[in-house]
Amino acid sequence: MGLHAGRRRSKRAARLQRADLRARDGNNGRYYPQADARLANNPDLAPGINCCAVCARQFITKVCPVSRRVRYCSAHHMLLDAKARAPSMRVLRTLEMLQDDGAPVEIERDEMGLSRLANDGFGVVEITPPAWAYAETMSYPLSVTHCLTALSPFRKVTKRARSDAIRIVIMGASDAEAAAAPHVWLDCFRQAGLRGSFTVVLVGPELSAQEPTEAWKETCDVRLEYLCETAEDVLEEADAIVGFNLGLTVDAYDWGATLEKLPAGKPIAFFTNSLPELKAELEVYELVCRVRTCRPNPFRSPRWRQSTSMANDIYRRHSYVVAGTVEV
Fold this sequence. Notes:
By secondary structure, this protein is α/β, with parallel strands linked by helices. The chain has helices at about 1-25, 35-40, 75-80, 80-85, 90-100, 130-150, 155-160, 180-190, 215-220, 230-235, 255-260, 275-290, and strands at about 60-65, 70, 165-170, 195-205, 220-225, 240-245, 265-270, 290-295, 305, 315, 320-325.
């Protein structure tokens, strides 16, 4: 009896592990034929969020009892969607505690210490919104440092960064990327053995207008510059280019003009939120650069997020990175 019970527990643990692996890649939901016509006629419908996850009817009578975040028009459709919903149910339940979105946490100093961040990701123990928001903000400078120290296209820049001044352009930046102070960026670079000075240019339509940081001249070897418009004018002077979650397959974001002006021979890295998103955008990456490496990002955001277009689509920001050399 005990042996059989142990086997059942091991099988259950294996199922939970497989479900967790599927959840990490995001896009666990699925579109059903019953919803095609309604979704085509009304682009504002989001299955499971403001309409039934199966048929897209706006008559809601049932909500997933586990996640409490996926909506249906009937118990039959809730049962029909159970398999697609299973990998993300536990994560969706925790989103209530983590506050899906909030104001970026301004980090003037490394208050929690880089020692709290393990090599395989984040070691944040307390599940509280401030702790997760802090770790999410920290993931941006750590991800850029990962590019400079671990990705082969950036080797030449890395050698220069050990002693000389380099310029890094970050495309797709928002206020979350800009929340870390220059000293925090510098701590990340110094922990990786990069002893040079850095100018980090943050570019993105969602970035609030800010003045460049000037304290670097006296106390810090990192200068942050903020551009709310396009990146074409600053690309030529860049030593390295990084794109965070550009949404190249989304019509709302138009990076076409910027990608056409990428300077040839420069190392470039693109971060995406999930594996399906990476596969969809890989064709665009291959048009603008010679892809040399594609791997999970060890410093992805620790905070799960729910997509605004499908209830079962959950992801972590910049979970994967593709790196290469510009060949435009």
